[in-house]
Amino acid sequence: MSVYENLKDVQAIIHASSMRGKRDPSKVNIIAVTKYVSIQRASEVLDAGVIHIGENRVDEGLEKWNALGDKATWHFIGSLQSKKVKNMIDQFDYIHSLDRLSLAKEINKRMANGKKMKCFVQVNVSGEESKSGLHPNDTLPFIKELADFPAIEVVGLMTMAPFVENNELVRPFFRKLRELKEDIEGLNLPHAPCHELSMGMSNDFGIAVEEGATFVRIGTALVGNEKV
Ligand SMILES: *Cc1c(COP(=O)(O)O)cnc(C)c1O
After folding, report:
1. CB–CB of 111/93 below 8 Å?
2. Residue 45: inside a domain
3. Ligand 1 in reach of 198 Cβ (< 6 A)
4. 40-67, pLDDT tens digit by residue?
5. Is residue 123 part of a domain?
6. How far apart are CA 176 and CA 182, in angstroms?
7. Measuring from atom 11 of ligand 1, which residue has the nearest CA?
8. Is 202 in the pocket of ligand 1 (CB under 6 A)?
9. I need a surface site. Which of 11, 39, 56, 127 has the fewest CB within 10 A?
10. How many CA atoms are closer than 13 Å to the CA of 118, on its beta-carbon side?
């Protein structure tokens, strides 16, 4: 299937889920996760009209950026080693995986001339050991500590739901992230407006949208998962 056809299907699901969740579908941004695919396939995403690209590795992300750079808004969605921050900081517009102070410190150090990096704080809502992210109870204290880093702007929270056969089982995790986001948003912290929710992947983005996602990260359903 072409990216264009896949996009139509994804948009239809976002629309239907927005209606179910009593939301405005235009508030849901699609991040095309191109980590599995070629530069060529990634450029089809842009041709189809998606502007957000997500990559989870620095080196491969930079290869795509070198080819497509200024045509897209770049989201780093994978776990990020502090020593690699300096290589990607000028290319990526958002980091979805902020989960420790040492990483915040490095991002802060590498940001040039008063600019801010838009960061999502990653939360492990399901408590699975294999997943990174903060425990929900540790999230607000962590965000308060980020006030020490003027180059970090906490735009929202991100989570990865567990993979389950029955999608309905992930709903409580998305709901929990939304509630946590609303609590933090309500504090009006200057460095942490926290209006956004990065949640939902190919197998569960419909439910994530119903529960309030403003950024969905979609790879397989949009570009496939084979290098083409
Ligand atoms: C790979 C990846 C995605 C996209 O996964 P699909 O199931 O292919 O849609 C989303 N978020 C993160 C953090 C990923 O690593």
Report:
1. no
2. yes
3. no
4. 999 999 999 999 999 999 999 999 999 9
5. yes
6. 10
7. 217
8. yes
9. 127
10. 18
Token pair 């960061």 in the structure block, residue:
119
Nearest Cα residue to atom 7 of ligand 1:
202
Q: How far is the CA of 113 from the centre of ligand 1 (A)?
A: 32
**CB 52 near ligand 1, within 6 Å:** no
In angstroms, the Cα distances linking 20 to 15, 28, 145 are 9, 14, 37
The verdict on residue 30 lying in a domain is yes
pLDDT at 225: 83
Integer CA distances (angstroms), 199 to 26, 60, 97, 106, 213, in order? 16, 22, 12, 25, 6
Query: Does residue 228 lie within any of the structural domains?
Result: no
Number of folded domains in the chain? Answer: 1
User: Amino acid identity of 12?
Assistant: A
Q: What is the pLDDT of residue 129?
A: 87
| Per-block mean pLDDT, blocks of 10 residues, the chain (228 long) | 95 98 98 96 96 98 96 97 97 98 98 93 93 96 98 98 89 98 98 98 97 98 85
* Bridge partners, 31 (sequence order): 52, 217
User: So what's the pLDDT on residue 228?
Assistant: 63
Question: CB-based contacts of 183: which residues, under 8 Å, 6+ apart?
Answer: 140
Structural domain containing residue 103: 3-223
Q: pTM value?
A: 0.97
